[in-house]
Amino acid sequence: MEEQVIGYRPRMTDAGVRPTHTVSVINEKGETKQVEIAGELPLTIQVDGHEIVTLMTLGTQPELLALGYLRNQRLITEIENIESVRVDWSTESVSIQTKDGTGGQLQEKLTGRTVTTGCGQGTVFSCMIDGLYAVKLQPIALRQSQLSRLMKSLAPYNEIYRSAGAVHGCALCSDGNVEIFVEDVGRHNAADTIAGKMWLERISGRNKVFYSTGRLTSEIVMKAALMEIPAIISRSGITHMGLHLAQDLGMLMIARMKGDKFLIYNGQEHFIHDL
């Protein structure tokens, strides 16, 4: 992992909640069993008292989710402008206070909104799309042996999925190793939580790989690009618009991972077959 340079950090709560709940069910034999199910909570993001959006989330890392959402949507661009991030589950909200009253200036940015195919419906604001093509990704060479090692490294993760199902996982990876892994009810939430941690801890996305258990849609490609991550992989499929964006941005895109089998949809010139 590359060295992290930790700078300014806003005041933050630590209000993560348990991701699963135990319930009683009846199986096919008529027997009563105790099983785990995934949690799902609404979390309304407010900036300086102005409501931005309500996300449905597991709630394990709500502060990072809120930070990453604001960063990826380009609603706030400098973390030094954020004074505090406070989650209050009694009101199902996270309150972000800025130093310059940014929240009162966000209405223009919030006018253009697209509802995406994200689980539970994601949202993309026009300022996110406007800033997308300003991103200049630095291509990386990914070896097949690194990809194989990465998939083996990911095997111990997905703990919530193995326990309760109903969630997606995303990871920030480098050199065949997992740096950050997050599960949530939607892959877009997991991606934003990773973005929040990267923003808070000044972790660069360059020379990294983004992994998702879910499909690679235009929204996920956009989020990876805005994190400056040049390669994206998934065990699921892709969408047509997701592919077009990856092509426009010069992003290495690999999907339909199953064992040692996979498909390279874009960026073949940056992939080295060495197995």
Written overview of the protein:
This protein is an alpha/beta fold and 275 residues long. The chain has 2 domains: 11-110, Roll (Ubiquitin-like (UB roll)); 142-272, 3-Layer(aba) Sandwich (Cytidine Deaminase, domain 2). The protein is built from 7 helices and 17 strands. The chain has helices spanning 62-72, 126-132, 144-154, 159-164, 187-201, 218-226, 240-249; strands spanning 11-12, 20-26, 32-38, 41-47, 50-57, 82-88, 93-98, 113-115, 123-125, 142-143, 168-174, 177-184, 209-212, 231-234, 252-258, 261-266, 271-272. Strands 12-11-13-14-15-16 form a 6-stranded mixed sheet, sandwiched between helices. Helix 1 (62-72) crosses helix 5 and helix 6 (218-226) packs parallel to helix 7. The radius of gyration is 19 Å and the shape is globular. The two termini are 24 Å apart. 41% of the residues are buried. It comes from Desulfoprunum benzoelyticum. Belongs to the FdhD family.
| CATH superfamily heading of the largest domain | Cytidine Deaminase, domain 2
- Count of spatially separate domains: 2
Listing every helix as H and every strand as E from the N terminus to the C terminus, the arrangement reads EEEEEHEEEEHEHHEEHEHEHEEE
Taking Cα atoms only, what radius of gyration do you get, to the nearest Å? 19 Å
Average residue pLDDT: 90
- What's the quaternary structure here? single chain
CATH architecture of the largest domain, by name, is 3-Layer(aba) Sandwich
Helicity range = 25-40%
Number of strands: 17
Secondary structure tally, helices: 7
Read across the widest sheet, the strand sequence of neighbours is 12-11-13-14-15-16
**Strand residue content:** 25-35%
Sheet having the most strands: 6 strands, mixed
Query: What global shape is seen?
Result: globular
Q: Remind me, CATH topology of the largest domain?
A: Cytidine Deaminase, domain 2
Measure the end-to-end span: 24 Å
The class by helix and strand makeup works out as: alpha/beta
| Unreliable sequence segments | none
